[in-house]
Amino acid sequence: MIQSHPHSRKSPYPFWFFLPAAVIYGVLFLVPTVTSLWYSLTRWDLMTAQFIGLENFRQFFSEPFLVRGLFNTLVYALVTSGLKTVFGLLLAVLLSGQIFARGFLRTVVFFPVLVSSIGIGITFTVMMHPTRGIINEALGLIGIPGPGWLTNPSLALLSVALVDLWKGVGLATLIFIAGLATISPDYYEASRIDGATRRQQFWRITLPLVRPATVTVITLSLIGGLRSFDLIWAMTQGGPGFSSDVIASVVYKQYQAGFYGLSTAGNVILFLLVGIIILPLTFWFNRREVDQ
Amino acid sequence: MTRHLKYRLASACALIALLAAGPLRAETTLSFLIDNGPDTLVAAEALVEAYAAKHPDITIEIDQRPGGGEGDNTIKTRLATGEMADIFLYNAGSLFQVLKPEQTLHDIAGLPALANIAETFKSVSSAGGKAYGVPFGTSMVGGIFYNKKIYRDLGLSVPKTWAEFMANNEKIKAAGKVALVQTYRDSWTSQILVLSDYYNLQASVPDFATQYTANKAKYATTPAALKSFERLKDVHDAGILNEDFGAASYDDGLYVLANGDAAHYPMLSLAIGALQQNHPESLADIGFFAQPSDDASVNGLTVWMPPALYIPASSQHVDDAKGFLDFVGSVEGCKVLMGVNTVQGPSLIKGCDLPADVPPAVTDMLPYFKDGRTAPALEYLSPIKGPNLQQITVEVGSGMRLPADAAAMYDDDVRKQAQQLGIPNW
């Protein structure tokens, strides 16, 4: 009864207890969001802003590399999110089993999450150098001519996505390990008595029951992938040419060039894109959960 | 009660004493914002030190900012919020115009040093007929650096036409060396062949800059302008580039040029400073020539202006800051700069002659200036420069996009800049 009439119950705290949080939220989140919506409709040079309606959005969508950037953003988000989910789950299953040096291996997998993206980006750029990089030199030893990981326009984005996987899979693994720990061992014991194989256990018990963790990993890594910027900027700056540009890097370049209104419009588009993809997804995941 | 009062009195007296013991003479501290290039810092420190020796009552504190687009943003943001240093270093020409000088900067009309500063420089650091900056360094040029030792060994001579240049490249390649270095990891370096071709462009279309600013001339539809993009395709298709052109950096380019693995590097003469710093022993073997055109009689240099020192409108110490600018713009200040910094071209301050021991690359430039075979780069003639040029030139230079397509794309790119600046007719 109390739950269904929350307003009828007087809060034990005076109203002004909420004020500090409300002020911080308003000043740091609400005001910037609303002003950025306004500035996205202007030609802005930080000193003067001239209202130009939806011209920035028209301009943004008419740029040839923006379409490419939009496509790349989706590819990048799907590839990194998909790979992180698959590899994260497999590593979590492996690292939840009774294996040698489990704690140490868990640390090793998680370690790259703690390192700065810029540092990782610079390191991998050196390692992926087409002629002097360690990766291609190693491939050369076994007789495979390595590609230009970051200089071949059709490979550059995927190379960065692989590095992103290496960097981010640790977090996915951690979430999955926590998810696996909540599955009661009774299920496995019972199924073993019934003669289930390890494979059947994985598909019929682990996968369905680790679902909340899967939802978290997919949502987080998809959002991360959609707004990814630091690694791409450190490794390719969107290049060669525009071939690994994503929305965030296009926005940043507009900002660097001093097109503040245009880049704000780009951010509004990115905000809407993330919303359009994530909201239905979360809704769908949650409903499925209730159905079960 | 009385004890309490005593304490208060005592502490008040102490406070007054402290305040009184402060500066006996009015001392001024000026803040001075420069970019983070190592040679910039050396130069700024030398100027500040020389100035402090003459004006002990003025302290100048140097502060650094990042270069490139990030630096542009730092400058614009600090100007817009009124938090700019008392003196700051920034480009002249199109980037200077973007700052809206008439609103954000303090004009330096009447500064004694101005009388001695070359007109070419004043024209690119003025707005609305008022001067705003003094030059920080010598003029620079864009063209082709070459390794003189390779030229001697192979019996080559400095090319006067593009065809001769490409023939030299073939011979160098046949000798097993890298003929031409390109370094697209640092994408800004990919623009040089296009930008340094401006002397040749203006030789055949003299009013290109005006027409281009007025939205009448286009890169895609002006054959001489399109040619600049075609040069990039030429050198790529000829197979004369270093194998790792897509991954090599500016420093890599200078390294292979300096150690004699590569013969040519299209670059701005600011590279002389970097060579001096990293490979000083190589400077004797590095020469320089203008980017050739198809016609041997059209052979000249595209000239870049050095950055300038400006005073923001928000400065609280305008007069003291002007004093420093006057010093930097004087022959004396110019000599201080030349003492620590590599000369990258002729000086812009009258009466400040180049020292006798300039590197050969600079000696190679002087005849062009003497004969008047120079033209300012387009960014000093027109306020419009598209921000995506460096990505577009990487694409052309890597064989990913055809010159005609690239030129059309660049014409679209400059539109945004023109609109942002509110230039009529766009």
Characterization of the model:
Chain B: It comes from Neorhizobium lilium. The complex is a heterodimer of chains A (292) and B (426). Chain A has a two-stranded antiparallel sheet with strand order 1-2. In chain A, a hairpin with a 4-residue loop joins strand 1 and strand 2. Chain A has helices at residues 19-39, 55-62, 64-96, 102-114, 117-127, 134-141, 156-181, 185-193, 198-209, 211-226, 230-235, 247-256, 260-291; strands at residues 42-44, 49-51. Chain A has 13 helices and two strands; from the N terminus they run H-E-E-H-H-H-H-H-H-H-H-H-H-H-H. Chain A has two domains: 14-55, no CATH class; 57-291, MetI-like fold (Orthogonal Bundle). The model of chain A has no long low-confidence stretch (mean pLDDT 88). Chain B is an alpha/beta fold and 426 residues long. Chain B has two domains: 28-132 and 307-343, 3-Layer(aba) Sandwich (D-Maltodextrin-Binding Protein, domain 2); 140-304 and 361-421, D-Maltodextrin-Binding Protein, domain 2. Chain B is 45% helix and 14% strand. Chain B has helices at 2-20, 38-54, 68-80, 94-98, 101-104, 119-124, 148-154, 162-174, 192-195, 198-204, 208-213, 223-237, 250-258, 271-278, 318-328, 331-340, 360-370, 389-397, 403-421; strands spanning 28-35, 58-65, 87-90, 126-127, 130-131, 134-135, 140-147, 178-180, 262-268, 286-289, 301-304, 308-310, 374-376. The longest helix of chain B has 19 residues, at 2-20. The N and C termini of chain B lie far apart (79 Å). The relative contact order of chain B is 0.17. Residues 17-24 of chain B have low confidence and may be disordered. Chains A and B meet through helix 12 of A and helix 3, helix 18 and helix 19 of B.
